Structure formats: structure tokens, C-alpha cells
Amino acid sequence: MVANFPTGTYRVQVRPGFDLDATAGLAGYLHDLGVSHLYSAPLLTATPGSPHGYDVVDPTRINPQLGGEEALKRLVDALRLQGLGLIVDIVPNHMGLFQPAANPAWWDVLTHGRGSAYADWFDIDWDAGPIVVPVLGAESDLAELSIDGDELRYYEHRFPIAPGTGEGSPQEVHDRQHYRLVDWRRGNELLNYRRFFAVTELAGVRVEDAAVFDATHAEILRWVTAGDVDGIRVDHPDGLRDPDGYLTTLRERAPEAWLVVEKILERGEPLPPHWPVDGTTGYDALGDVCGLFVDPAGAPAVDGPDWQEEAHEQKLDVTRRLFPAELRRLDALAPGSKEVLAELAANFHVYRTYLPYGRADFDAAVTETKRRRPDLAAALDGLVPRLTDPADDLCARFQQLTGAVMAKGVEDTAMYRWNRFIALNEVGGDPSRFGVAPEEFHAAAARRLEEWPAGMTTLSTHDTKRGEDVRARLAVLSEAPDLLTPLLGRAGIPDPSFETLFWQTVIGAWPLSADRLQAYLTKAAREANRSTSWDAPDEAFEATFAAAVHLLDGDARLRADVEAVVARIRPYGWSNALGQKLVQLTMPGVPDVYQGTELWEDSLVDPDNRRPVDFAERRDLLAALDSTALAGQPAPPVDDSGVAKLLVVSRALRLRRDRPELFQRYHPVPVTGDAAGHAVAFDRGGALTVATRLPLRLAAAGGWDAEDLKLPGGAWTDVLTGRAVDSTRVGDVLSSYPVALLVRE
């Protein structure tokens, strides 16, 4: 772990529409907000026009569409002027192929085959024939046809050669037969290069090769060595052949950098303690914090399969449906193993193992596979010695498969099908884990401080299924699930589970436009792969939820009923939003604020959560907030403006940055009284957080009464309001807001 790590980060989706110079313009605002570091989306050259940067096409230079090298220098100078550092996101596992000619390395491989200087960059099965390029449209229906003039012209038209991107025209490639075009629908079956999850346009990169590591990381490490970059966020390490070796090498090359990994941990799963990193990117913290505001008493009955059965069914389905090419490659190493390995992958309850570390998780998957499929037991026993030998190619490739199966089967399928309470359906989450008790949260926070104090915490990212404040409002429904009942069935969607998803989405994000809702529902329905899909959209089914969106947009009575439910729960949703934000910002770890979430956050899954942010509005509101405080005027109310959240975010971040000595320990603060369970409180070593939980039931019971907060001795001030706290009664401490941040003077 590095000695000096951020006190708070702010994630910015740097992109062609908001480039490095635009980002530099945020430096003053981010300083005033209270963060110590700007945390940027990937900055290396990506597919032209990429809105996210994860489809890197040239890792040797900064993206010219973001402003290039000079713009990066201007950004760093602007940040340093404000006393801020820079964290960058990197993508070691894969590169973008959507425009092959824009990727010099890939285009050279297509041109020269094994003779390419870049042939070792990509994980290609050269013995399987020419590289399969699944780009042909349905109109050709030429799945197995080798390239002829028409298809060649189609390919050249779709992926034109960019000037200066390498030698060779498509005709030269055709003459050498280093690739063949197939129907896009057969990519899952015929592909002969490793990819990211099931995305054929993202090719796996062999960073386990020292020369490939050096070539693909030289630019990033140059920024670190020059002192321009202070930290690195590693995207999707589970896709790498050897995450341990990769992270060890990266730490050796960047010993002073703050290093966090996008490792998705399942419930109870620890981060491998031997990894030379500072922690994860915080999905584990997200689950703990959000669960704290969910009422376990509201867990509804489940119709149909339970969560574990649903997850297993979808993992097995995606293994067979999306990953036949990967299974074929494994089968070449161990003939006759396809069915055994498909079932074994579906029985993993973690993303992957890092053998020999994680052997217990592997053994658990073996045991479960034998329980479900005793007919496979003998074959599986024969494979176990090879599957547990890290030196065996079968072991390494199988470990790379299980993470993809978990991501596609659980995150991207089961979590859109099992919709009893969608606030729990988040990356790394367990939808069957209905609520987190304060005692459980305190134990997890104490472990975080002891084991990974410099790991990131988060509530929203570019990958979350819905924004943090949407989840906060939905959490209120766990206290009063009957509030949703009068709406169910009125959308006319023939899939009951999807109808439930529809109404929870509407209530959680209301008000939202018809266009946003329609785009979200289309993605959610196709990801669920039940009534429609990406490969074979069902126009009739999709018309049913399109009609529901239209009905909601035009039926005054239905809208009034929706607005009545939202009005009933909105104030309590705001209470939850402030509570979970303050807890996240002050708990052990490095808090990240995703762009724009310092005000109310109503986004849904990407690309909705990458919508432009009105930073000018936020800058003006923060300046007005500070002026109000200087003038001794009352703190702002909790209302539609979201300024109360901005107050919480800025005051908590500033306190962490300016007085880090107050955040060195963690102790739960006891609360006594009949409603004690409605408060969560902890002392970080001089900074004390108090937050309200389950606010609707608290209000129904009459609010705070004689509940007492066992404050350590001394005089306390609430930094949110500037008010001296001279009472230990919870009702007095929380008389202004449902949260308080106390500092002992």
C-alpha cells in the first residue's frame, strides 16, 4: 500500500465531447468541492468518437480527440495549480476493433498474419485458420463463404483504411488470406481470438508477455514517472491470463502510484491479500452502504426460482450460447470436456480463482457441479488435476472464462430477470441479501480499515445499473412495498417480472422523459434475454412496453397515480440519499464521487449515466452555498434543488482533505432507545457520522423521542450546519437534517 493516497476523488468521463481542456476547466471547482484528485476515464487513443474510452486502439499515445499531449500537460498544470492530483483509468485486458483500420496493431495482424510484428499482442488461435472477422450483415447470409469481391468491398466500406495506419490494402489482405469474413451472428461460435466478455469488437491482449506489457504500458508509465499521474485504476483484471503477475509487474514499474483494481467481489469474498494493490474500486462498499438503508422486513415473497437457481440457469445458458468459441478452444486442450467445463463454470459463485489462491472456491464449484450433474463426476475428477495446475494452459484459460460467464450470466442477464427489488441488482451485489444490519456494516467497515484502508469506495460508476439516488428512493419501498401494488398490471406488459421492473424504474427515477425510459427498457429487456434479445429482437413484445411508455406519457390519471406514490416516498428517498452519501464519504476507504452526483442523481444504466453534466450550475450553487455559510444564514432545505446533497458532499470531502487526522480510526457509536435501529453512527477518530435509516417507518412511529447518542466526551460541532451540539439526544442532533457530521473541538 502506498503511504500517500487520495482523500477523495471525482470521476470525470473525459470524452471527445468533453475533452482534456474542458476537464482542466473543472480544477477550481473540484478544489472547492473538496476532492484531492481528479479521476479520469481512459485517456489513450480509443475508437474515433468513443464516448467512454474503453475501446483503446493505440496504447502508445494519448487520444488526439481529447486534445493530445499538450492538452494533458495543460490539465496537469491546472490541477497542480489547485493542489490536485490525477488518477487515470487503464485498460490492459483488451483493445478495440470496431474500426479495425483505426487500430494499427490489429490492422497489421490482419495484413501480415503470423508474420506481423504485432502477432504476439493478441491471443489468437493460429491453428484454427484465418482470423474470423464477424461483420457480414444479414443481407449477405454468407456465414461460411470465403472473401470474394463483394464481401471485400463491403468490408472496405465499413472499415476504411485510415491514413498512416499501416501497410496493406484490403485486397492485399484478401490475397494473403489472413482473415475471413463471416456473418456477425456466428461470431460467438466461430471466433478464434480471445475477446472481452462476449464483445467481438474487443480483442484480448497478451500483457502476460513482457514485450507486450512494455509496449502497451510505456505511455502510461511515462506519465507516472514524469509525476503527471499519481494513481492508476485497472479495468477488469479478471480477464487477464495472470492477474497476479500483471499486478506485480505494474507495482514494480509504478511503486509510488495509488493502485486500485476493478475486482468484483461476491458477498464474503476477500480481495486476494497478496495482491500488491491498494484495494478495489468499491463495489463491495456500495453493497454494504446501500444495504444499510434497505428494510429487511420488506423482503417480498419470490415466485419462481430463487436467486441462486436463476443465476445458475443464466450462467449455464450464456456459457453455451455466448461462449461456444471459448469452449471449443478449451475442448481442443482437453477433448470431450465442453459439457463438463460449461457446467463447472456455471457453478462458480465468484468471478474467478487465482490458483493456487482461491482453491476453496474452485472446490466448492466442483462439489456443486457433482451435486447437480452426478453423471459428470468422473469426467470432472479427471480434469481437476489440470484445472488446478497454473502452469497448464487449460487452467489459465478456464479461469479467464469463469469471470466472463459471471459477468454476462449474472450482471447482464439474471439481474434483469429477477426483479423482486431492483435496488439490490448491482454489480457484485446479491439480490437475495435484503438489507444490511448496522452491526454487519460496522464489522465490514472495521475490516476495511484494517485490511484495505486505501481502497476506493463508491455509490455510482459508469457501470452501475442505476444511480445512487434512484436506489435511495427505491429503498423506501422496502419499508412500504404495498405502495407499488396499485400500479402493477397497469402497464399491460405480458412478462410479469418485466412489468415489475418497469414500475420500479418509473418510481425510482421519476420524472423521466419517455425517450430515456424507452431506451432503458429496450436495453433491459434485451439483456434479460427472455421475451426479446439483442440477437433476435421480438418486435411484438417490445411494442408492449413501448405502448406502456406511451400510456404513461399520455394518461393523466396514470401519471397522477405515479406522482402520488413518488410524492409519498420522495422525502424519505432524499433522507436515504443524504444518509448513504455521508456514510460513503466518511467510512474507511477513499471516497469517489461520480460526475454530477453531488446533486440528486437519477440516472439509469449506461449510456444514460454518461449524460452531459451541468458543471456551471454546480459551480454556481457551491459558490452560493459558501456565501450563505459565510453570512451566517441557515443551511439550505432538503428540496428538489439538491443543494442539501451538495452541502453534505462538499463539507465531508473538505473535512477529509483538510483534517485527515480525524479519520484514522473506526468505532461504532451506540444509540439507545426504542428507535435506536433507525440510526447508524460511527466515530472515525474525531469526525463522527450520524445518519437516519428506514425513515418512513421512523416517521410512522412518531419520529425521534428519547433515543440517545453515546457521544464521546468533549464539545461537538456539526460541520454541515455550523451548529454547536450540546445534546446527546438523536432528535436534537438531527434537528436540521437527517444526517450530521460532528467534529470534536
Can you tell me about this structure?
- The chain contains 26 helices and 23 strands.
- With 745 residues, the protein is of the alpha/beta class.
- Strands 13-12-11-5-2-1-15-14 form an eight-stranded parallel β-sheet. Strands 16-18-19-23-21-22 form a six-stranded antiparallel β-sheet.
- Helix 11 (307-322) packs across helix 16 (393-417).
- The two termini are 31 Å apart.
Give the proportion of residues in helices.
40-55%
- Percent in strands: 5-15%
Number of helices: 26
Distance between the termini: 31 Å
Shape: globular
Walk across the major sheet and give the strand order: 13-12-11-5-2-1-15-14
The value of Rg in angstroms is: 26 Å
Low-confidence segments: 139-175
Would you tell me the overall average pLDDT?
93
Task: Write down the oligomeric state.
Answer: single chain
Number of strands: 23
Largest sheet: 8 strands, parallel
What class do helices, strands and sheet pairing give? alpha/beta
